Amino acid sequence: MDSDRGLFGIMGFDYDLGPLAQGFVDFELSTKQKLALKVSNDYSFWGNNSGNIFVNRVVVPIGNHKQEWDFKWNHKVTNVPKKAKEDRKFYDAGYGIWNLNYQNITTNLMYAVDGAKLKDDYTAFVDKYRHIGFWDMNINQELGQNGEFNAKYYWTQDKHALKALTDINDKIMKDDDLDPRRTDVDLYKSIKYTNGNKDVEITVDNEDFRDINPGYVGDLNSYRKKRNYGIDFRGPKIKFDYLNSDKDEYGELLGMRDRGDDKTIHWVQNVAYDKRKEWGLTFGNYYPFRESDFFGYQPRTGYQNLTNTLYFGAQAKQVEIIKKEYEYDYTRDNEKL
Description:
By secondary structure, the protein is mainly β. 9% of the residues lie in helices and 54% in strands. It is built from four helices and 14 strands. Strands 1-2-3-4-5-6-7-8-9-10-11-12-13-14 form a 14-stranded antiparallel β-sheet. It is flat and about 80 Å long.
């Protein structure tokens, strides 16, 4: 018996029904929450896919009770190339590992950083935010003969709920004088793609980054956003690049100090905002010197080894940089306290 469930009992069974269904189910019967389940299911298919669905707790909607669930999904893909590297097209997959994870939990089952139940000590938070979900993915995949696809993704379905939870934990760490880095929370999305052959190459490098509670030791940015694209037609030597980035940078003003509410001296932190927008175009042609499969050119001189590295062309580039620096209020104070 406990305060949440009252008098309760648990029973369950294991099962093995093939590659898609292997695991167990536990039933919990209680006087307060009626029926709750705990389930774990392992699965595999196609020889390279495997995963697990784990429901740590879900209360079945029977009777008058609050919603409760806590579940995780993990999936892994292991790719092995079906063709030799030299025979692959740009879309053929080589070696690759995909790790995909998702978790969703109701806030009435969560704990603060000091071990306190949120539903006991932080009822306003639990009443306002019912659940929080997280995606956590890491993909590293070879493509074609020399291409790669890399993705890192850690994001939440409710940034407002995560920010409110982080504020609770930050206050606990500050009041107890503990290391605040324990509660530092970063969200990020990163995609990098490179692919091509001897005639054309395509590159993509995109990033989104958010620090939910910036300003701790070691934090360099509270946000970063980058969009970077490029395409290179190697035969006629035409290349286009585009970059659009926006970020802030944390730093300290050396020699500048301000007095806090507690009359002590603090180092003053400044924030610089850096926005960049660039595009570049390179164009030219190896003809009549270079042999290329792009247009089927053939060398017309006997100095192919020398002229194969030369081309006629031009380059145009435009760069727009906006940098702003903001500082917190400070006083230059050399007096002794």
